Amino acid sequence: MDLEHNLNSVVERIGSSCARAERAPSEVTLVAVTKGQPPEVVQEAMRLGLTLFGENKIQEARSKIPLCSGKLHWHFIGHLQSNKVRDAVRFFEMVQSVDSIDIAEELNRRADEASKTIPILIEVNIVGEASKFGYRAEKLRTDLPELNQLKRLEIHGLMIVPPWSPEPETVRPVFRQLRDLKEECQQILGAPLAHLSMGMSSDFEVAIEEGATMVRLGTALFGSRPGARKT
C-alpha cells in the first residue's frame, strides 16, 4: 500500500470533480474509513495530513481510538445498536448513521448523561434495499419534527450507503434523490442542513458532482481488504 500516492490521487480526483461541478474543493470533507486498519496506519495517515476518520464497528473503535493521537476526529458511520450507544457517545464526535427514532432517543439519553451534545446525520435508505439500514424517505418526513425535539442531538444533514455498482453513473439518481430530500427536510425544519455524506471509493466523484459535502473513502486510500466491498 502506498498511502501517500493514494491520498494524492484522491485529492486530485476530488479537485477535478469539484471543478466539473463548479464547486470549491474546500466544500468537500474527506472521511478516511479505517475499518480493519491498525493504529499504525491511522498514524501514517495523520502524518500525511488526514485528521477525520470513520469507523463502523464500535468494538473495533473502542480498542483502536485510544491508541491513536488525541488530535484526531472520529465519526461513527456504521449501524448503531442500542447497547453500543454509550460507547458511541464516548468515542465519536459525530454519529452519521442515525436510522430510527429509537436509536435517536437512546443517543439523546446517553448524551444527556454525559452532558454532551452530539451532531448527527440521519441515514436514509432511498431505494429501500432490504439488506441495508436507514430511514425510508416518507418515514423520515414523519419523524423529523420529533427528531428535532431531542435536545442533545444536532441534526447536521443526511447520509446514505448507496447501492453498489461497477458503473458509478447508475448511482447518480440516488444521490440526486438524497439531495432533493435534504431540501425537503430543510423546509420541514425551517433551518439549513450543512451536510450530505454520500459517495464511497467506487462512486465519490459522481457524489461530489451531485452535492456531497462528505465522502467516506476506505479502499481508495488503503487498498482492498480481502473479501471486502469498496468503501
Contiguous low-pLDDT stretches (5 residues minimum) are: none
Strand tally is 8
The CATH class is Alpha Beta
Give the number of helices.
9
Q: Can you describe this structure?
A:
With 231 residues, this protein is of the alpha/beta class. The chain has a single domain (3-222), classed as TIM Barrel (Alpha-Beta Barrel), CATH 3.20.20.10. It is 41% helix and 16% strand. The protein contains 9 helices and 8 strands. It has helices at residues 3-20, 39-47, 58-64, 85-91, 101-113, 137-148, 172-189, 204-209, 219-222, and strands at residues 29-33, 52-55, 73-76, 94-98, 118-123, 153-159, 195-197, 214-217. Strands 7-6-5-4-3-2-1-8 form an 8-stranded parallel beta sheet. Strand 3, helix 4 (85-91) and strand 4 form a beta-alpha-beta unit. It is globular and about 45 Å long. The mean pLDDT is 95.
Secondary structure elements and their pairing?
Layout: H1 3-20, E1 29-33, H2 39-47, E2 52-55, H3 58-64, E3 73-76, H4 85-91, E4 94-98, H5 101-113, E5 118-123, H6 137-148, E6 153-159, H7 172-189, E7 195-197, H8 204-209, E8 214-217, H9 219-222
Parallel strand pairs: 1-2, 1-8, 2-3, 3-4, 4-5, 5-6, 6-7
Helix pairs in contact: 4-5, 6-7
